[in-house]
Design goal:
CATH superfamily of the largest domain: Medium-chain alcohol dehydrogenases, catalytic domain
Number of helices: 10
CATH architecture of the largest domain: Alpha-Beta Complex
Protein name: Enoyl reductase (ER) domain-containing protein
GO molecular function: 2-alkenal reductase [NAD(P)H] activity
InterPro entries: ADH-like_C (IPR013149), ADH_N_2 (IPR041694), ER (IPR020843), GroES-like_sf (IPR011032), MDR_fam (IPR045010), NAD(P)-bd_dom_sf (IPR036291)
Keywords: Oxidoreductase
């Protein structure tokens, strides 16, 4: 449906977050690698015949995979593309359609999907095709950066499609207070599983046990022997490990798995700040125990999104699922918010609020 004109007219300054240059191999990303600029203008109108859409960006998602995009690579096994230095970085976000030449969207629609870290984005036909129209606006729009968007779909695909949980099973979730972990743990409780999570502070451990319903939780920074810690938490072993961390935590989980256990390899944030991968040393334990380790990419499961909404919306509305967000206000605070997830500074899902839509 074409819809030109109205409040989409005119040319305005378009504040943007850009990557200055690619990281030098193995370098840890820093706030100074980004720049927030406000010296470019954008015409608030989509060219007729372009099949594109113009978005006013409202909320932006901070996700670990974005750090990989700060490196230059010709191809990627992660189905992600490098950022372009000097251009706005890209990620998942929520926006309002200001103008549209695309048949799926009209002015005033709310959508979520890939967009630029800028106040306004003009998306091409192919980029617009990948957007999801938001039909359920009784839920906070920011949730579509997380539990009703990429993080929720990641949790749903990894836990239900990869791990195939059964009632009464023993589930371990690393980075359990983060964007994906908090959702996985609550899905496991809805399934009637016993759930333990780990996090990096006393405050986060308390949240897991007292607000998110985990049966037990521990601060991994206070545990000198992770293998012994998991043996203590799971004296009968682990059926399902949802791995957001990799490294030593993955090693500790493998030796504590039960026979026919399942491990969903979702993310390895412990590896992002290392010059070279740490490696996994206990894989031999997976052989005799018939443990299945499977990596997955959320994009392969997007066809399940309508089914996922049917599953998750009722417990959200009924208060059976608690969703924690950490909101940073203003694009100028975007780089700090993004880098902060590397050190676990955030409590819950880290979101950048570009502008709030009343």
């Amino acid at each position: 449906m074409q819809s030109h004109g109205g409040d989409g007219d005119g040319e305005v300054i378009n504040k943007q977050v850009i990557l200055k240059d690619y990281l030098n191999g193995g370098a840890s990303p820093k706030e100074s690698d980004f720049e927030v600029i406000a010296n470019r203008t954008i015409k608030l109108e989509v060219p007729q015949g372009s099949n594109g859409v113009l978005l006013k960006n409202l909320y932006l998602s901070c996700d670990p995979y974005m750090f990989a995009c700060m490196n230059k690579f010709e191809s990627s096994t992660m189905d992600i593309a490098s950022f372009t230095p000097g251009s706005p970085i890209r990620g998942y976000g929520v926006g309002k359609v200001l103008d549209s030449d695309h048949p799926k969207f009209k002015r005033g629609d709310f959508v979520w999907g890939k967009t630029g870290w800028e106040e306004y984005s003009i998306l091409s036909t192919s980029e617009a095709e990948a957007l999801f129209k938001i039909d359920h606006t009784d839920i906070p729009l920011s949730y579509y950066t997380g539990i009703l968007g990429v993080n929720g779909m990641t949790a749903y695909a990894g836990f239900f499609e990869i791990c195939c949980p059964k009632k009464g099973e023993y589930v371990f979730v690393s980075a359990a207070s983060g964007a994906v972990g908090q959702i996985v743990g609550q899905f496991a409780k809805l399934m009637g599983c016993y759930v333990v999570g780990c996090a990096g502070s006393k405050q986060k451990v308390d949240l897991l046990k007292n607000r998110l319903g985990f049966d037990e939780a521990f601060n991994y920074k206070e545990e000198p022997n992770l293998k012994a810690t998991l043996t203590r938490c799971f004296p009968e072993g682990i059926d399902i490990y949802f791995d957001n961390v990799g490294g030593k935590m993955l090693d500790a989980a493998i030796v504590n798995m039960r026979r026919n256990g399942r491990i969903a390899l979702c993310g390895m944030i412990s590896e992002f700040q290392k010059d070279k991968p740490e490696g996994v040393h206990e894989l031999i334990s997976a052989i005799g125990k018939r443990v299945r380790l499977e990596g997955f990419i959320m994009n392969d499961y997007l066809h399940l999104y309508p089914k996922y909404l049917d599953f998750v919306l009722p417990p959200i509305r009924e208060g059976q699922i608690v969703y924690l967000e950490d909101l940073a206000y203003g694009l100028e605070n975007g780089p700090s918010a993004l880098i902060g997830i590397l050190s676990g500074r955030n409590i819950g899902k880290q979101v950048v609020v570009v502008t709030k839509e009343d």
